[in-house]
Each structure stands twice: as C-alpha cells, then as structure tokens.
Specification:
Blueprint: E1 3-7, E2 10-14, H1 17-21, H2 65-77, H3 88-99, H4 110-135
Antiparallel strand pairs: 1-2
Keywords: Disulfide bond, Mitochondrion, Oxidoreductase, Protein transport, Redox-active center, Translocation, Transport
Domain CHCH: 64-100
Main location: mitochondrion
Length: 136
Amino acid sequence: LLVSSIIGKDRIIFATKEDHETPSSAELVADDPDDPYEEQGLILPNGDINWNCPCLGGMASGPCGEQFKSAFSCFHYSTEEIKGSDCVDQFRAMQECMQKYPDLYPQEDENDEKSSKDLEAASMEASAAKEEKGSS
C-alpha cells in the first residue's frame, strides 16, 4: 500500500516494508537519441532555450511562466553591449507577476533585495547610457 500526498512543491510517498520487498515492475525505456530535450541542459544544440530543463526549477511553467520566458528569452538573445540591458521591461513584468504569488516565489531577504535593486538600477543606467549614446 503506497500513500502519497503533496506538501508544497514536494510529494511525500509512504511505503510499507512489503512494498520494498516486492520486486519492481518498472520498465526502463531506452533513451531516444532524437529527443531534443533529453539531457540537453539549458541550451539546445541549435541554440534554442530548453524550457523543459530541470535547471529552470519549473519557472517556465508556473503562473508567471510567460513573463519568465519573455524575460529569459530577451536576455538570452540580447545582442546589446551590456547583455540584457534591453530587457528591463520584461524583467519588471516578471517581477511584478511574482510579487502576486509570494508563496510560490518567496521574496529575498533585505540583503539580497538590495543587490537585486542595485542590479536593476545598473541595468536602467545602462539603458539610459545607451539612449544617450545613440542620441549624439
């Protein structure tokens, strides 16, 4: 008898001694060498983002998944001198969405918050410098 329950993001499974003594009936399926998502990491061989990568921790599929994808795509494909300096609006939209779901996206403590605000300020300064440079 297996009992399963979900607590937060984790699934807890309780198994009896008998469950452990019974041989597994799981069948292993051979890896498909043509599966573009299998063990590819964050960036696929063709340069696309692997939204199924476990390294993203489910960010691409949560309630702010579209905002995350937009911001991350913008950054990944950015060709600006300061990479991602053209993505401030997308990252701001992602952050605003995440603030609506504090249980899913816990806010950083004050020290981390300060560094993220510093990063955002630096990014804005870079955008302003780029505009200024372009207008001369």
